[in-house]
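Hi R.,

As promised, here are both runs. First protein below:
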Amino acid sequence: MPKESSIIRMMKNDYSMLKLNMDNTYKKTDMLLKLYRKVYWSIDERFDDLNNITYETCLGDYNTLTYLLNFAPDKELDTFKAKAISAMQTRLLIDLIGKAVIRVREYPDNGGIYYSIIDLKYMNFFKYSEDEILEELNLERSTYYRKKKEATVLLGYILFGFIMPDYVKKEK
């Protein structure tokens, strides 16, 4: 079993202070990162679909809303609401992840490298291969894997420990 890095050991203490389970948060963050590029790409398509529904219905913003709220059949209105809510929730999650990633970049110890790993591996429009990332960041493979784990742990800590709780507080 590989030895834990000093950052991971330190983060365990930080996680416990916030009463977060590090392993579960890591898994959730890893899953979000793996889905990020596809979700980010699809969100524009979903907003385009919503625009198509509204523009095909009555060609205009205010009139569209009036039509949907007052004259559209309930099923059509429910479908539009469900799609709009889903798209807005997805957009919100993308924005919250983006804020967390910016905070990772500002982290004093290796924040820049953590940010670059997350960006190149998961968020960048272009999908970089592992070898391209290693070359771009001038890292050895073992160092890359260690830093990638540290970056994911740190991102989860920031996202689930600060960014999301702050958002929930503001919404209350």
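And here is the second one, sequence first, then its structure tokens:
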Amino acid sequence: MVAVAALIAWRATSGDDGRLVTTPAKDLVPDLTPLGYRQIDEFATPLNVPGQDQYRRVFARPEMPDRLAVVDITVHSTLENAITAYELVAEQWGNPPPGVFTGIDRFEETPSPAVGDEQRSYVSTNADSSGNRAWTDVYRAGNVVIVIQVLDEGATDQMDLRTEIAQRTVDGLH
């Protein structure tokens, strides 16, 4: 427990400015229309967890409806809670439960867009039947944990698109 407290104290002084985001998560999900997406779904996560507010939006490309982007934002009441949640969420997305993505076997770590205070990313090891791969980028920016998932053409790393979505999201926190 002492080691965890020391880690939290160290992280709280290494890049975090100490300001807490208090804006509702629903208001922090960026508009992805300029990137060629349209919103197809949105919902508050049904987990009523004290001290956190979570919201998710799902976007699709109208001309290619099997190419998706999902932005999930959780605002935590404290930096310490966000750091703990980030570690847990980032670890879990490295090995998601079967069936989360149809036709995807497993995930491996991949380079992350350099956005936020912490980041970890994963990519599917195979393409689905449409030739798409899935990327999951998990970020922490202060007391906010962000999960961005992109399902898109699998021949590239989609780094530019992933970075643009992440940057729009993190920029909207301030």
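A quick note on the second one: The beta strands are 38-44, 52-61, 64-76, 107-110, 118-124, 132-141, 144-153. Let me know what you think.

Best,
J.
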